[in-house]
Amino acid sequence: MSDDTELVRRMAALAHLDVTDQEAEQLGRQFADILASFETLTRAEVETAPESSATSGAPFRADTERPSLAREDALANAPETADGFFSVPKTIGGNH
Amino acid sequence: MKDATDLLADLAAGRVSVRSCVDSSLERIAFLNDELQAFANVHVDEARARADELDAELAAGATPPPLFGLPIAVKSNLCVRGRESNCGSRMLAGYRAPYTATAVQRLLDAGAVLVGTTHMDEFAMGSSGENSSFATTRNPWDHQRAPGGSSSGSAVAVAAEMVPLALGSDTGGSVRQPASFCGVTGFKPTYGAISRYGLVAFGSSLDQVGSIARSARDVEAALQVLCGADEHDSTSLRDFRYEVDAGQPFEGLRIGLPAQFFTDSVDRDVRASVEAAIDVFCERGAKVEIIELPFTELAVPTYYVLATAEASSNLARYDGVECGRRANGDGSLAGMFAATREAGFGPEVKRRILLGTYVLSSGYYDAWYGRALAVRDRLRADFARAFESCDLLLGPTYPTPAFPLGQLEADPVAVYQADVLTVPASLAGLPAASVPCGLVAREGVELPVGLQLIGPARGDARVLAAARSFQSVTAHHHASPTATHEGAR
Which pLDDT tens digit goes with each residue over B348-363? Predict the structure, then answer.
């Protein structure tokens, strides 16, 4: 497995994304090309910006209660529900 | 076809009924959509019912609201309560939004009639319309060419005269570039001018709702309704309203031409059309100077680092729990997440999620994401400096006219690099329009070229006043795709 393919597999695991062997290989090649074409950015002589720079100035709303989606609406698009809740596989004590 | 402004005058005066106007729109969609694939969903019965209601209200003496009876389309990443908002993704096939986006609601409240939702590149990632899970949208000027993206269906719906006005979204050029490819007027406002509430998030610090129409004055009619603060979007500007600038913008207008927008990467014919358009401004008293925006040379990597980082976070919510499809995988919770995302996302979305995960991950964050934030600040400063001596910046919208479908499918680097002219205004949060400025011949077919106009933050009315003035002395925006008039091929 090439370094690029291995990198893609590690990122896919972080992103909760299954990738097939074929996808990992193809994405690995593309990843290498993309990062090479972006290389100029890593050489830019700039001071690192504070983390808030993208969203600075956005006001906070008042911390007051207000209506939210009705439960029925919130659940309407869920693939699986049970007793008015979202249903997912068990996380403790087995798979089901 | 009349533009929206003329149509609105006829509708409000009762010279044309809303029902006949909506029926014309629906007939044209029925005639062309199988071939062009602009619309993902057409709401025939609902549109007709709403049209009849509006006709009855006018007959009863009601004062018509500003967009009374206007048929509109919206991109499939804008939520409309009870309707499918699939974002061009298998992941959201069949997803019916539980509420309506503020931008859409404002158009509906102003009397517009929603006739349907349009195809798009999956999660607004792409510039050809080919990344949809459901259909390949075709350019009405040449059905073998890309319509541009990601607001592919919205641009085609307007260019093919299915509707006079459509909403899209623009993160790095997704309204301007398809407008350029399809020969229509597209506009991305100042960041925050229009609420993002109900716009499915891709890159939240960049995403904006954009408008596509046949003329700048039509876009202005929409903006007067769309702009304004929204309590549901904390990034919407508190004190911004769109007010039409009725002054004469040619005489004394100071135009900057960024040297970085006129490089050898721009097609020679595209450049000639854009230069001819600049001459139109100069001949009427505008002053032109070449300016430098040095950090635009880093705009593409900066954009793709920031946009993919934000996308990797925004798209983490699609995991098979709250909405969309689910694949069970190995039966565990983690296995279900991974299998759902593998099955639901297409290749471009996966590529961007992985890239965004990489630039945010430990060990790479400072070199990529941190540096991109810093370059974004420098790019903003470049623009601020330019607007000290210029009122507007002009250049091409895209380096080429519409390219053949499939041409760039296997080359993501080439696709990304070609965004070099649209991403700078996105990174700086500036208002920018694309207006048709000529046609160039490719393999015997004429294809539109877009002129991009960029203004300072909150200078939206200045950008569109210049676009409107340009259209008042030129006829490029009246050009129509003959391929469409010949019917489906």
Answer: 999 999 999 999 999 9
Q: Is B325 on the interface with A (CB under 8 A)?
A: yes
Q: Does B264 fall in a domain?
A: no
Contact B146, B129 (CB under 8 A): yes
Catalytic residue ranges of B = 75, 150, 174
Contacts with B234 from chain A: Cβ below 8 Å: 58-61
Tally of domains within chain B: 1
Nearest CA in chain B to A27: B351
* DSSP helix/strand/coil, B174: coil
Distance (Å, whole) CA B37 – CA B404: 16
Q: What is the CATH number of the domain that holds B57?
A: 3.90.1300.10
Question: Exposed e or buried b for every residue in B157-186, given b needs 16+ CB within 10 A?
Answer: bbbbbbbbbbbbbbbbbbbbbbbbbbbbbb
Q: Do B371 and A41 touch (CB under 8 A)?
A: yes
CA distance A48 to chain B (A): 5
Asked if the peptide bond before residue B150 counts as cis, ω within 30 degrees of 0, the response is yes
Question: Quick one: which of B97, B110, B91, B116 has its CA closest to B30?
Answer: B116
B20 within domain boundaries: yes
- The C-alpha angle with vertex B173 and arms to B462 and B170, in degrees rounded to 5, equals 80
What's the whole-model pTM score? 0.96
Interval A12-64: pLDDT, tens: 999 999 998 999 999 999 999 999 999 999 988 887 766 555 556 677 778 88
